[in-house]
Structure formats: structure tokens, C-alpha cells
Amino acid sequence: MRALPATAGRGAVACAAAPVPRRSLLLSTAAAGAALNAEQLPLRLTGGAAAKIRAPADAAQAVTFTSTDDALAWTNKDNRRLLHVVYRVGDLDKTIKFYTECLGMKVLRKRDIPEEKYTNAFLGYGPEDSHFAIELAYNYGVDKYDIGAGFGHFGIGVNDVAKTVELVRAKGGKVTREPGPVKGGKTVIAFVEDPDGYKFEILERPGTPEPLCQVMLRVGDLDRAISFYEKACGMELLRKRDNPEYKYTVAMMGYGPEEKNAVLELTYNYGVSEYTKGNAYAQIAIGTDDVYKTAEVVKLFGGQVVREPGPLPGISTKITAILDPDGWKSVPGSRCLSTTLTLPRSWSSL
To answer: Which residues form the active site (predicted)?
Structure first.
């Protein structure tokens, strides 16, 4: 299971209208992007077993963990869920047409922000408060982006891979891998590309409650990445598979069983320690109960906070922005009882 690259940029922020635990605070690239541009203050902090860590951005919300065990205990109790993935496209209407007609998604909502010169649209297979979603960002006048080499693919679970592939082909889509068993396994898969060149792995997974099931990113040190997502982000290592014949290893990370939830698929290619990330892929959003504590845990376990936690101007949503050790972006944010976590694309880009 392999594919293409990534980056971050602009977008906007939308939230659930009422307080809903662990649910749909949905950060888009515009408001969060503007906030990141305004506060590009990289900060990296690590500590030992007795480290005391405080968040200086909001004195009223200062956080102290007395030890790494204390931080891990809180992370394990935090209510988290993968909310949505954000990326840029060059023709929003064309992309929406492909996703709805070929992949069976629905447009959940769409928003145009002319004063900021962008439009975004949320698509998926069910309500945002219970399903993983896609946020497409279109910046006025920009019709092409560089996907890079670090971004891999998105995964879609379907009842019949062959039928889906034929539909994609009939609609003029590009099929890059015909249906057949995955290398080293039995699951039937295929690969197709959307109009911007993003790869989608089509997996035969009948009756799945979460068809939008994977985001694959390439990393330079798999053990380091697994440790970060377990400790800093509270994910579970669901499975790990080494494929020496094809010289790669994959690890599935997430917040629940792979057959029922969207997961982060981390791929390590033997001997490759760094990837270009381009400017197309942006970030993943993760729900969390407390954006301040999330930021401090990230610092403690080797991540970089590139925007200190705090409210966005003019609204009650609170966010922070972080980078994982490979530079992938997340933006944790919160409103009421919701928070979003998102990881940036490159250590040096912010």
C-alpha cells in the first residue's frame, strides 16, 4: 500500500453549534491558517520524569504536569477521534463531482469566504459528528499544487472493488492499479487518482461503518513516529506489518478498531529518512477535550508546538498547531468540550 506527498496552507474554522463532547469541532484551513501565519513561533520542549511544563499563551489556562506518567495518564483518558483531513485542490467543482459520482461521497457543507479568497467543502459518508470527513480547500486563482513525495494515499472501503474501479473508469477517472490482492496479503485493493493526482486506495471491506478509512503518510523513522502518536496523541498501535520483499513496513495507528474507524497509516520505506511534502496536503484534525493539555503533552514527547494554545480571534474556538517528528501537521482546537488536533507539514515551513 503506497502512494504520494503533502503541505499546509489556508482554510477557515467551523464548529458545532452546540457543545458536544468529543465531536465536531471542525477546523478548516483558512482561519487556522491565518492564525498560524500570525503566530509563527516554533517551540520545542522535552522533559524527564519530573518535568513541570506550563502553557504561557493563556495564564488562565496554565497547565502543569508533574511527571511524564501524569501526562500519559491524562492522554489515555482524553476523548479523541479523527475528525477530518484537509487538503488543497485546483478545481473544487470538478473534485466534488468526482468524489460524489465515483466514490459515493456526499457534500456535507460548503462555504465561500470571498474576503479571504477561498472556498472549502466538507465531504464524507455520514454526519461529521460521527464520521471522518474530507475538507477540500480551494484558494482563488490557484489551479495546481505539488503533492510531494511524503503523502501517500487516502483509503476508501467498498463492497466491491471491481465495480468501483469500473465506475471510476467510466467517468473518466485514472486507474493506476487494477483490482487484486494486496502485496503480501489477501485483501482485494485497487488504486485510482482524483483530478488533482491524489491517490485513493480502494479496499474491499463490505459493510464497513466508516468507508473513509485511511490516511497514509510516509515517515523516516517508524519507531519514533509510533512512539509519538501513542504518547503525544493517545493513539493505539492497531497493527504493524513488515514487508522485506518489497522493502517497506507499515503501522496502523488510531482510536479504535481498524474495521470501524478511520486510521493513520504510517509507512516506512527501507533506507528513506526524509520526504518532500509539497504544498497540497495540509493536516489532520483530531478531537480532544483540552487543547492546552494536548499542547503540553506534545512538547513533552518530542513534538513541536508552532502555535501556542488559545482562542481564535472573534470566536470561542481554541486551537493549537503542532508538528510531529517528521513535520506532519495537526491543529488541536476546542470549543466547549471539543478540541481539534492537527499536525503541520514541515518543521521549517512555519
So the answer is: 201 (proton donor/acceptor)
Q: What share of the chain is helix, strand, coil (3-state, %, to 5)?
A: 20, 35, 45
| Mean pLDDT of the region 91-118 | 97
Binding residue ranges for Zn(2+): 135, 153, 201
Which residues are known catalytic residues? Answer: 201
Which residues have CB under 8 Å from 29's CB, separation 6+? Answer: 8, 9, 10, 11, 12, 86, 88, 118, 120, 135, 137, 282, 283
CA distances from 182 to 87, 238, 295 (A): 26, 18, 38
What is the model's pTM? Answer: 0.80
Residues whose CB falls within 8 Å of the CB of residue 102, separated by 6 or more in sequence, listed in order = 164, 167, 168, 171, 173, 192
The residues facing 241 across adjacent strands are 250
**So what's the pLDDT on residue 334?**
63
What's at 295, amino acid-wise? A
Spatial distance between the Cα atoms of 272 and 227, rounded to a whole number of angstroms:
19
